[in-house]
């Protein structure tokens, strides 16, 4: 049997493993499989990464949205191996998975080797701190559920503590809003978000809703808008620099109405425990700092037996998604630098790209097993949507969806944004189960607080 190994159970990797398992695996335990499909991930569960800002704000309980890889493997005819990729032997077509350890129980699984005929690397991306002094030590990234939960708990603790303790005196030179008309100086607590891409913008909007809910449930008696400050810091001239300018302007207007302070054109030079210093000399008070300023590929990709990478550490792939030096190794999603014909940059690191590439590779592997040549992948940009939490959403639809390019916002944009996740659920479970999951999610939300309170 042909042996497929997919490393990384994110949006693209898990969708590909599911479709390959359904097509070539044995889902009933009776019929022999046509191919062996193995998914490798260092975590036991999957959560859609674009939801992590909601986890950080407490508006989503991750444990109700997580999917266990072992269960998905049983239901869809593939095998799951938990562990982290630590090595690759391309000559022997073998990967090395590191030992699995538990803080209390010690080593659970030893280091293992798995042989493949076709390897797909889909391990996503990690936060890029750009070597900024103190950034990694004094800020929280949102790469994992654990990091998002850590920020949520620290936010609740900061709100509860600020009610009973006065804020520290503002040091000279601190940009606390006193020079800006209409901005209340010295909030009791202040959250600074570095990076005004989709993650930073979405988190800032969600946090405003979180502050109101925490106050309503009595976890603090602060004024949600004036006592809890939210500052969004962006090095570029505008927020959402990767999207169209009119989307950026519409989003900035909505965030300003929510009381989010926008600081553009400010490059962060240093992050300390309670403040941020910019290259222009400004100092911003920060009781909590979230770093969402950029991404890079995991460091392991630079050590995979000569597979070429770019400056962000991404594997350089051809339009077939095969790596430049090995036809048996493919890459997709955020960790792949894939050409985008007609554009100066590569395919952007978005969930829609990972979904498209997973579907493309599924069809490519069907052709490959039939001895047919592989097609070339072409990215189709259907636009971008940014959630502004409970309040709204904004974005643009383009390409095949409407035959043009249209700015959308409000409830319709919010509905379209929510549909993206539901389409991901449908890709993993089918449309019938997706509908049931949607109803179950709605029922849970109707009988629980809008924000996780503990």
From TrEMBL:
Its cofactor is FAD. Gene3D superfamilies: 3.50.50.100. It comes from the Bacteria. Keywords: FAD, Flavoprotein, Oxidoreductase. Residues 3-358 form the FAD/NAD(P)-binding domain. GO terms for biological process: aerobic electron transport chain. GO terms for molecular function: NAD(P)H dehydrogenase (quinone) activity. InterPro entries: FAD/NAD-bd_sf, FAD/NAD-binding_dom, NADH-Q_oxidoreductase. Belongs to the NADH dehydrogenase family. This is NADH dehydrogenase. It comes from Caballeronia novacaledonica.
